Amino acid sequence: MSIKLTYFGLYGRVEFSRMLLAHAKVSFEDERLDGATFGARKAAGDFPNGQLPVLTHNGKTLNESVAILRYLGKHFGYYPADAYEAWYADSLVDFSNDYIGKFAPIIFGGKFDEDTKKTYVAALTAYAAYFNKHLKSHGKAFLAGDKPTIADFHVTSVLHSVALNKASPIPADWHTAVQEILAANPEFHAYTNKMGAELKDYLASRPAANF
Fold first, then answer.
1. Which residue ranges in the chain fall short of pLDDT 50?
2. What SS3 string covers the chain?
């Protein structure tokens, strides 16, 4: 079985799939392209919609980040068979995925003033509170039940790209705000620690990236 994930040298919209494969202890090629290489390969028609990420699996080329995550989840046992449970996991992923678009302009904008901090804190507060509510309501170990699903990898990837990323360019006082937000959402805070332990080896060895 041959698996390759192709993306940039970032976490972004593929880190959740990298995390899933690492958790499943599946070997894969982690291809990270620079801008020039991406441009040349895009011009050559290497990518289905001209964008990344792309998954290459057993001779097939798949695109769209969440569709890739769902495909891998089904293949390696992280996607529920029950229709309602699958919807629940999908709904959590959809909510989380919207926040990549909220956080990316803050990190890449490079403007870490008070107004931008307020935007960041407000977004992270809403994000944490949403998942804290879900964890509190069902009392399960993971976001969508008793075992990890695609939702857990998506949310953990966002947290470890934006809020718990040691290579992030956010200022020190923003990191303090992150800890205050987690403390205010105890179920979610405990969950972040649990997922950090689940992915300890991967998080310790992954290449540094600012997002």
1. none
2. CCEEEEEECCCCCCHHHHHHHHHCCCCCEEEEECHHHHHHHHHCCCCCCCCCCEEEECCEEEECHHHHHHHHHHHHCCCCCCHHHHHHHHHHHHHHHHHHHHHHHHHHHCCCCHHHHHHHHHHHHHHHHHHHHHHHHHCCCECCECCCCHHHHHHHHHHHHHHCCCCCCCCHHHHHHHHHHHHCCHHHHHHHHHHHHHCHHHHHHCCCCCC
Query: CB neighbours of 47 closer than 8 A, spacing ≥ 6?
Result: 6, 41, 54, 61, 63
Say whether pTM exceeds 0.90. yes
What CA–CA distances, in Å, run from 71 to 62, 64, 100, 143? Answer: 9, 10, 20, 19
Radius of gyration of the chain (CA): 17
Strand partners, 60: 57
Cis peptide bond prior to 169, omega within 30° of 0: no
**Angle at CA 107, nearest 5°, toward 101 and 112?**
130
> What per-residue confidence (pLDDT) applies to 1?
62
Q: What are phi and psi of 137, to 5 degrees?
A: -70, -35
